[in-house]
Please model this.
Amino acid sequence: MTHEIYMQRCLDLAQKALGKTYPNPIVGSVIVYNGEIIGEGYHAKAGENHAEINAINSVKNPALLKDSTIYVSLEPCSHFGKTPPCALKLVEIGFKKVVIGCLDSNKAVNGKGKLMIENAGIEVICGILEEECKDANKRFFTFQEKKRPFIILKWAESVDGFLDRNFKPTQIGNPLTKQFVHFMRSQEEAILVGTKTALVDNPSLTTREIDGRNPVRILIDLDLKVPLDFKVLNEEAKTLVFNVHKNEQIKNINYIKISNENLVNEILHHLYELQIQSVLIEGGAYTLQQCIDQGFWDEAIIIKNENLLLECGTRAPKTNTQCVNKIELRDNLVEFYKNT
Model:
């Protein structure tokens, strides 16, 4: 078996925790002895054991570890946080070889873990399925390198490119795409809408259709027009309300005062300060198009009902990029776009 096969297993393991490890990245690890996997693990939750430690603890015969190769999708950490450095643990055990998918761009690590292991005389191979490993942690890397959350835009439109009929709420998706959207919400740290969407749709912005964590809700409500009894302000999830009037914490709602100038930049700065690594934007056409026009987006997911003709209503946003992938969910087509 090749390095790539073992690294792919690391990635498969890491994906099990997507949306559950914030602010940490997702990481998977396998341990191989004489061509056989004898241990594997992944990082399940911030504050708990990292992937390498869980893989080590899963090995039934620890005596085999020093003659084994450990694979890990992201560079082992080299600093003390809520847990001790994983790189130090690998050195203590004395693995025969360490294979790393990609380096960690976090300034607290960024090559230091790899160097610590190499300085102990252990062979290190780096860059196996590197692009796939970086993509698995696109949220983490974007946050570290661009100093803002990873931004995903999402909307549903008719075959003729409308979000609604005659500017009134209109069901476009089907039950399958509704579950798909709730699954998406569970993977992202936060979800954002504007005032108009909150007032017209009265959304909960939760994952009630599936068994998953609720994202942090973000409401852009500059003049505080959304009534307190609306669903977006209930106690089902932590909620941030960006406004021009006050800074105040009331139960699960954190009111954050901002100016009305450079709105998107200021909100992204606050989200970075709050350590929010990813945002799913389900706002209306205006909010979505603002993000597109200013270049503040990384991916877009568009649900299209190819059997629905609305003829008149709110026009769907335009991305001017090519679709990179699509899936069919009954009569709905889900298209995926990337901002290049």
The radius of gyration is 22 Å.
